[in-house]
Design brief:
The chain is mainly α and 115 residues long. It is built from three helices and no strands.
């Protein structure tokens, strides 16, 4: 899940950068991108502005949702706060933490040394 979200975010970021760079300012003519007198080409006189604006908004929404999803996925993964918390005193990572302390009856008796 994490890898898929990272791929979606990178693709959305690249598409967003490309779409923003293709757009022109408000003072530029629609035909300036395709050469002089080409305002009636691929998207029509004003079609490219609407198409690029909508595509940019969609890419921005996808990027935003991917960012929020990644933040949630990373936050849900419960990593230890410190490496010291993840390692037991003998140097091994504990497989299962004890749920209750051992009872005194379970402890073997230590032999008494005669005096």
């Amino acid at each position: 899940m994490h890898t898929i979200l990272v791929v979606v975010q990178v693709l959305a970021a690249v598409a967003l950068i490309g779409l923003v760079l293709l757009q022109h300012g408000k003072g530029a003519d629609a035909g300036a991108a395709f050469g002089s007198g080409a305002s009636g080409t691929v998207f029509g006189a004003r079609g490219s502005a609407n198409f690029l604006s909508r595509a940019t908004a969609i890419c921005a929404a996808v990027f935003f949702l991917a960012s929020l999803s990644l933040a949630y996925v990373v936050q849900v993964r419960k990593a230890p706060d410190s490496i010291v918390d993840a390692v037991s005193p003998d140097g091994e990572t504990p497989a299962i933490a004890p749920t209750e302390p051992a009872k005194p009856d379970d402890q073997p008796e230590t032999p008494k040394v005669p005096e």
